[in-house]
Design a protein that fits this description.
The structure is a single chain. The chain is α+β, with helices and mostly antiparallel strands and 372 residues long. Helix content is 31%, strand content 23%. The protein has helices spanning 2-24, 48-80, 176-185, 203-211, 290-297, 314-319, 340-343, 348-368, and strands at residues 101-104, 143-154, 168-169, 172-173, 191-192, 200-201, 213-221, 227-235, 245-255, 260-276, 279-284, 287-289, 326-330. The strands form 3 sheets. Strands 2, 5, 6, 9, 10, 11, 12 and 13 form an 8-stranded antiparallel sheet that branches. A 3-stranded mixed sheet has the order 1-8-7, with no helix packed on it. The longest helix is centred in the first third of the chain and has 33 residues, at 48-80.
Length: 372
Amino acid sequence: MKKLLIVGMVLTSLGIGVQSIAQSGYGKKPATPPATTPAAQPPAAQPAPKTTAPAAKGAAAAKNKKGTATQAAGNQAIQAAPAPAPAPVLAAVPKVDTIPVEYDTTSAISKPEISLRNAFATDRSQNRDRKPLEYEHLREDDNMWSEFIWREIDAREKMNQSFNYPGTDDNGDRRFFSILVNAIQIDSVTAFGDDMFTRPYTSDKIRSLVNGGLDTVDVPDLENGGIKKKQVTYKPLFSFDSVYTFRIKEQIIFDKEASRLFTRIIGIAPIAKRLVGGRSEPFTLFWLYYPDLRKTFAKIDVYNPKNFSSRMTWEELFESRYFSSYITKSSANNPKNIDLLQIAGNSKLMRLYEGENIKTRIFNFEQDLWQY
């Protein structure tokens, strides 16, 4: 019994010693917790970079997101903001009253106005259907003698005043130069640059010769108290009234079959004036083939100051030689093809004398062919 008691006391003391050793931690191994108890599993210790990287990425992402949002807001604000207006060029110029500007680009070449009613007491509708008489046929083999003559018609002479008649009729302006220009624009008559009819002119070329260029002029505005205003209009190179000289090229033929002289007009050219070296010099505007003009001339009457009802047409005027002219050049005894003014030594009086000598020579030639 005593032995059992002593053994129990020894075991009790040993148990107290083991418990104290366990509590002191000497020689203690870490105990592995059971897998079935997750609550008892302590959180695994992670290295410092791995634990801070997600936080850094989150902060960077938040920062980038914030910067992207800020940039998008800035771009939206820039797009919404209005574009800056350009600086005015004449900001320093003081403000002045604007002058009204009108554009009057009416061409000098215009179609004649057609009356909507009969402006005459008689019916003149057949005048537009008139046609010239056909020329008598001349054979080249019957041409025994011929000569080319260049003449000039001065509209300032009393007999030629009808060439500068400024009135209007049912066919438009009655000035002869206007008739020639309208024949080009309306009747499609071809203009040429020489009297041999080798260089045709276009309609734009004729328009540039007649109209000139655009120019700005000051005109009074009578409706607004006489205040001046600007007007953009054509500045013609010359006035229609200044074209009063017309050159004619004709051929005189003696036909042995008819035993008579024929005078046929070949071409007509208006002569204008221009300044060359401070002096007014004549120059030829264009040449028109006369047979092409006969259809136009047959429809237009010539101004008659004595009797309006007994007017002739322009075609009758030229065929009947009802005009005054002087000779400027002839093909006879002229191997250099120069004018009489150059032959006569630049003397206009001597040129007239030479022209009269040519007329007398042609007249005597015709008379000497006959024997009485």
